[in-house]
Amino acid sequence: MTEIGSDWRMVDGVATAWFDAPSLIEGAALAGRIVELSAEILVDLRATGLQVRLDSPEHAEAVSAAARDLELAANPAVLQRLSVVLESANPPVVRGFWQRVLDYAPGEDGGLADPLRRDPAVRIRQSTEPRPLRNRIHLDVVRPAAAVEQASLGEASGPYGVCHTDPDGNEVDLVPGDVLGEKIGTADWQAVFSAMACYRITSPTQQRDLAAAAAALADETGFPLLVDLRPGLVIIDSGKDQWEDDAHGLELDFTDLAGNLQTAARELGATADPGLPRFAQLFLDASDVAAVRAFWVAVLGYTHDRRAGVSDIHDPRRLNPVLVFQELDASEIERRRQRNRIHFELAVPSDLAQTRLATTIAAGGRLLDESENRWHLADPEGNELVIVTGA
Hints:
The chain has helices at 24-37, 60-69, 91-102, 145-150, 204-221, 245-248, 254-267, 289-300, 333-337, 353-362, and strands at residues 9-11, 14-20, 42-46, 49-54, 81-88, 105-106, 112-113, 122-126, 137-143, 163-165, 171-176, 178-179, 190-192, 194-200, 226-230, 233-237, 271-272, 279-286, 303-304, 313-314, 323-327, 342-347, 366-371, 374-378, 384-388. By secondary structure, the chain is an alpha+beta fold. The strands form five sheets. Strands 1, 2, 3, 4, 12, 13, 14, 15, 16 and 17 form a ten-stranded antiparallel sheet that branches. The chain has a six-stranded mixed sheet with strand order 8-5-22-25-24-23, with helices on one face. Helix 1 (24-37) runs antiparallel to helix 2 (60-69) and helix 1 (24-37) runs antiparallel to helix 5. The chain is globular. The model has no long low-confidence stretch (mean pLDDT 96).
């Protein structure tokens, strides 16, 4: 990557950099300079820094120069991208189901990609291996109620009445979201496990000013807000459950902050798009939850949820999907032995691959096979992970 500078790495085929920042306000200052370079650059602003992704290396040096000017240093060691892989005997049919569930676009690899480039890609691989029992991995997807209805997946099942099954038997809990509280001042917000508002904007200046306003309001309260900048769009997000008092642990009613953010967005002329919010997380059944959870914490560098009795682990920068664990009855021996039809793929920079591989094996992972730029591993209960590098 010397041709576009030492700050950058290829992650899942995209030139990516992370710049540490001591606050949302200081990160927003860099984000504001970036959006003036190009509306096509993807910026994920966090309380500890920002991730920048470029489809073309054209603006890499200008972004790095702006970061240096603001005394923000790059940290390539934290870069990674987690995606979901489905193995299927009939990929086109399975692809159609998941496209309706997620409202994704066709990906270049024959899979599906989030048009907003926030939630994990779904890759679909051809397989003829029979695996008739229920997976130990499934997805939870939360979208606005109208979007769930429009997906037209038929009658749901399960204890909460939200479970749907694709033609291969892979399960998804497709959960309808709701408005965030009863306050008129939060009408732009949807509760989709995260509290989220998506604003259409019409200029880089408007996008820059909204990001700066959101950063200032969040920093004033100490709330670690997520602010994602996309072409023509600003997405403001609490992170999963963080709008709830027991999750964020602050002296703060999040709906007050949401109301102030809504006021700022509207004063800047931004328009809410209530159909866009989406949240996706990955659910693993395990007979030894503690051991499997510890494995994935080590491998992904994730953090435990602060709440007692909650099994979630999350990316400390909230850039990759949440993993949730629930206990699997130890008597389900055959289900435990069956290979999942779903596994995960972790893209990391090529210069960090060997370190990540060593971490995975030290955490109890088994190396199943390897090839150039690709390592296929299993966790202590056989859930599979493929570490990949490069494009």
